[in-house]
Here is the input.
Amino acid sequence: MMTRPSIAFLGLGAALPERVRTSADPIFDPIREAARAQGVSEATLFYGNREHRCLGPGESLASLTAQAGRAALEDAGVRPEQVDRLYGYLAVSEFITPNELYQVHRELGLGSHALVVPVQADFGNFIMGAVLAWEAMLAGHSERALVAVGARWTGNLDYAQGHAFGIGDGAGAAVLGPGERLVLVDYVADTFSNEYGAMTLRPRPEAGFDKPVYGLEPSRGVEAFLHTGMEGPPKLVERLLRKHGLTGDDITLVSHQATRKLLDHWKERIRPREYLHTLEDCGNVVLASIPVTLARYHHELRTKYLVLLGIGIGAHQMALLVRV
Here is the structure.
């Protein structure tokens, strides 16, 4: 029987804009005022960061993401010409289509043989891209892949809405290929298509926005956050761990990082030995939070296993088990 090769994260990298915005910025005053009102509202759900980063006018998300990609390639000791696939996504992209991932390909100097695969699955783009790269390698169609994601949502927010409080810009990347450390072991996923449209990025002329602006749709969005968003991920991770005879004490957890409310709840339910995040100083980097956190901490992992937990507004959830 043929033994499947071990596919691993060979290197990780991240890049953040220089401009820092603190949680005390006056732009968040409407959210603070709404949070002081009685009752549960969107304004009370998002908190936990003291600062985050923002791209300024004229600064390129593609260039920032390419910077993260170069850092990952250097960390892996892999040359650009050795990469045969580029997975990932940039949001909000310069064009509706094509995605700016093609510009990342250009700025990194990847060869024309390198297939570009935009993974439009906000916010789970990184995990989904890694899984797709892994499956292509197991099928023998790829040898080394780069997964690169970049987020620039600070320019597409209504700052009167609670979710805007923690969102920051940034980019993260990973090189995948044959390796013996940070080996991809298994994944599980759930799709909740009944929540399609509960959270969207779209023009909102009713609120004065002709450009696409992210939002939790009235009634449905908050309900999806409080039920599927909070309770779904612990059940998903439990399913993955049980399949491999593991418990929370065996793992380090790195997850989506929308708010401290979710992180605290997931920590209580999953009970990982270690829970790593960059929420306090990077905020919610949307699709890039997981690789940004991995790039910072991957040399300091102290458990035998790592679980990456992502969610998306499809709605979907994914959990990836990695052997350290």
In short: The chain has a mean pLDDT of 95. Helices lie at 29-35, 61-76, 101-108, 125-138, 220-243, 260-270, 279-282, 289-297. Residues 7-180 form a domain with the Peroxisomal Thiolase; Chain A, domain 1 fold (CATH 3.40.47.10).
